[in-house]
Design a protein that fits this description.
38% of the residues lie in helices and 17% in strands. The protein has 496 residues and is of the alpha+beta class. Bound molecules: zinc ion. Zinc ion binds next to loops.
Length: 496
């Protein structure tokens, strides 16, 4: 494909994805030519090529003409600039979203999601590389994903970022700030020229809706505060979540907890995550109903889930918010030594909640996952965190997404599991291979449990990873899944 043919193919792509109309065509071609430093455009036939192929041709051209250096970080910054040539301004995207919302909330989100993919803000051709599977468990179908679509570390980018002049002001302050919209990026910050965000109001505060560029599940959205301010779990947070599901009743939304170890990766910027997907946790039933005094009209109970979850549901969101505030305030200061729950040690607070909201049959439903981030001599990474025997598979925080029943596993695992399978099948000493040594104890246990063949090994390893993930979730539950744990859980409910 020549550069001219790639440009006409890109124009064809823009038409097919309703990014431009006929009136925009010449204007768009000239914008693309400007980025590519072409001053004479020669029309050529478009090709039936994928977006990835078209962009590759344009990127190769830019490298050949020495417009950019040849490495992934430079390429990602540059193709984002090219894609921006096809896109409307934020106000046009917002107007379309609002017009679609008048038809239905589903129309609005569905078209905005399509747009976020067509703009290549979500790099669909990378997302398809993610490995996904489902494992059935006592708690329902658990989703597992090995994320392979996050850009690899580029040594050239790391070196360039190191040598770049340092500024006292960090702009944008973080990856979630609204200032990312249209930002050209740098070696240590992704380009967001093709990013458009939608303003929404939650509890009279300004927020923005966007999708996650990594799409861990269908229509994985992020709701971010217009201000760069820390995550806080309080009554206002619950009210914002309930407002969100009222505006988008087909989406769930949740917040990471506000403490390290049990929180997500970005605690410095208030944000929520939601989407159009039903996780195993949402399908899990209440196994023990409980009536909170004075809140008889709110259905409540303990959910059948490896972590410790209270579910509330009712028609009146103010009433629910009021009860949640009571539960949160009780939990923040709750200590039960017999269950090894300490609200505070050495002045450091440990108790918090990971909340998830959704609408179900016209009722507001709120799941409150009780969290505690205490560390002990035996568990220096956290007592209610993945225990060390499982760190070979996952040692990262169990945040909102995992809590709901989707394991997001590190990309290193794919290669490691490939090597491990070969070692098992060829009876090679697992401890002698650096990549698999850490999986030895687990693999030996599996070797005793199964008779491995080339046909069954993939499925067994996938299932067993799922089993470990459920055990990790049980580790994170503050109450054990037995009679004693349940009694301790009910003791807390009574204390509310
Ligand atoms: Zn921020």
């Amino acid at each position: 494909m020549t550069v001219y043919s790639a440009i006409s193919s890109l124009i064809k792509y823009a038409h097919e994805n309703e990014l431009i109309t006929l009136e925009d065509e010449v204007f768009t071609i000239n914008r693309i030519c400007n980025v590519l430093k072409i001053d004479t455009y020669v029309p050529e036939q478009s090709k039936d090529a994928s977006l990835e192929e078209i962009l590759k041709t344009l990127l190769d051209y830019a490298v050949e003409k020495e417009i950019i250096e040849d490495s992934i970080a430079y390429r990602d910054l540059f193709d984002t600039r090219i894609m921006d040539c096809l896109l409307p301004r934020p106000s046009e995207v917002i107007n379309k979203f609002n017009a679609d919302y008048k038809i239905s909330p589903e129309t609005a989100t569905s078209n905005y999601y399509k747009f976020s993919r067509a703009s290549d803000y979500i790099r669909t051709y990378r997302i398809v590389k993610d490995k996904k599977w489902i494992v059935s468990s006592d708690y329902g179908d658990i989703d597992i994903t090995i994320n392979l679509s996050k850009p690899e570390k580029d040594p050239k980018a790391i070196a360039a970022a190191k040598n770049a002049p340092k500024s006292d002001i960090k702009y944008p302050a973080c990856l979630l700030c609204k200032e990312n919209e249209g930002y050209a990026g740098r070696m240590d910050h992704p380009a967001r020229n093709n990013h458009r965000i939608i303003p929404i109001n939650l509890r009279n505060e300004k927020f923005f809706l966007q999708y996650s560029p990594y799409v861990y599940y269908n229509e994985h959205c992020i709701v971010l505060s217009s201000e760069h301010k820390p995550m806080v779990i309080d009554r206002k947070c619950f009210e914002k979540l309930l407002d969100f599901v009222e505006i988008f009743p087909h989406y769930f939304v949740g917040s990471n907890a506000d403490l390290p170890i049990v929180g997500g990766s970005i605690l410095a910027h208030e944000h929520f995550q939601g989407g159009c997907y039903e996780f195993a946790m949402a399908k899990a039933p209440i196994e023990t109903f409980y009536v909170f005094e004075g809140y008889e009209d709110v259905t409540a109970g303990i959910v059948k889930w490896p972590m410790s979850v209270i579910r509330l549901s009712g028609k009146d969101k103010t009433k629910i918010a009021e009860l949640v505030e009571k539960i949160l305030n009780s939990w923040r200061f709750y200590t039960d030594e017999s269950a090894y729950i300490y609200a505070e040690t050495d002045g450091e607070k440990h108790n918090t909640i990971t909340p998830i909201a959704r609408m179900r049959d016209g009722n507001f439903e709120l799941d409150l996952v009780l969290r505690n981030n205490i560390t002990t001599k035996e568990y220096p990474d956290g007592k209610y965190h993945a225990h060390p025997e499982y760190h070979h598979l996952k040692k990262e925080n169990i945040g909102l997404i995992e809590v709901m029943g989707l394991a997001v596993l590190p990309s290193r695992l794919l290669a490691e599991m490939g090597t491990l399978k070969n070692a098992i099948l060829s009876n090679t000493d697992i401890s002698s291979i650096p990549e698999t040594a850490k999986h030895e104890t687990w693999a030996n246990m599996l070797k005793e449990k199964y008779c491995f063949t080339a046909e069954n090994i993939d499925k067994i390893i996938e299932d067993e990873i799922g089993i470990v993930f459920v055990k990790i979730l049980e580790n994170c539950g503050v109450y054990e899944r037995n009679e004693e744990g349940k009694n301790a859980f009910l003791r807390f409910c009574k204390s509310v």
